[in-house]
Design a protein that fits this description.
Layout: E1 14-15, E2 39-41, H1 49-54, E3 64-65, E4 70-74, E5 76-78, E6 84-93, H2 101-104, E7 110-111, E8 119-123, E9 127-129, E10 135-137, E11 148-154, H3 169-177, E12 182-186, E13 189-190, E14 196-204, E15 211-220, E16 227-232, E17 241-243, E18 251-258, E19 263-271, E20 283-293, H4 298-303, H5 307-310, E21 318-329
Parallel strand pairs: 3-13
Antiparallel strand pairs: 1-5, 2-4, 4-10, 5-9, 6-8, 6-11, 7-10, 11-12, 14-19, 15-18, 15-20, 16-17, 16-19, 20-21
Length: 331
Amino acid sequence: MPGHDATRTPWSDINLRDSLDDDGRIPSPNVSWWISPDIIPMQAEELSPEEQRRTWAEDAGRNVLAGVLNNIYVRGWNYKSTPQSGRVFLYWSDSALLTHPRDWKHQVLRTATGLTDYVQVSGGANDFVCSSEHFEWRPPSPMGTHPCLIARVVTEGHANPLPADEITSEEYARWVRENPGVCHRNVTVVPTTRQEHLVDTGFTNPDPVHTRYRFVIAARQLPVGTAVQACCDDPHLRQAWSVSRPEAELFTSQPVMLPPRFKGKLRVETRLPRGARVAPGASLNIKFYRVAAQGESPIIDRYGQSPAAIGFDGEPGEVDLFLGNYALRFA
């Protein structure tokens, strides 16, 4: 495949990409693991293996339609020097900034035939892999919800089990970044022409101790006059905050201290000006970070970023470990 350098990675099995620039290296060089182009929602249309290959360098996926069956395809790349095949499982999760496996491991989708909960993918040495089969999914929630799809491939050489229920935030981040056999894709249930958009997305502290986290909201190309407000549903976290001048593509961040094993929801409401025209690419990104310090652990040192590198002002010595994101697209 042009532009695909199979010599840059020690991985020797099927890779499901986190994003278009994912080349299979371990650890993944990407922090944008919620936009996998290898999970391809096609609404009611079919996507042949030839089309899956032809669109390898692009995101061919579409928004998900509410109330109807949607066809979902999964593809990947075989980094072995011999032909390879595997079973791909596809799960769905409610909207969450940290999609903990214990919350979705039993929510596995079935194929269009209804006979299995996996599709068989195969391909040649150092080559594209896919299947002519697809999954079917009728979103359980109406328009305005923002679930996530998670794909996992199992091969003869890599059983690729799901992690234990009680993993910490650091272990979760490591599992995502160091597992080429897993990918995520956030989807939006559409269409909608509303001026008001409401996102309820879950978040959790999987750690056994009080832990500090940070929400970051970034607006992109929203019309002048757009209002964005966020708040948490827990009584101790209900202080609301707003994104000032979202048309300026500014970041706003809010630190929170979460109790052990805490689960909550973040509500973000976006109101577009009446009659405003929304530019292509207009979006709102909601990001979730574990707040830490340099030297706290090997995982923090490897994957943590300074607030300045992310785009906002943090505290002296702060390092932020990215855990999850939801991107709301308006056009």
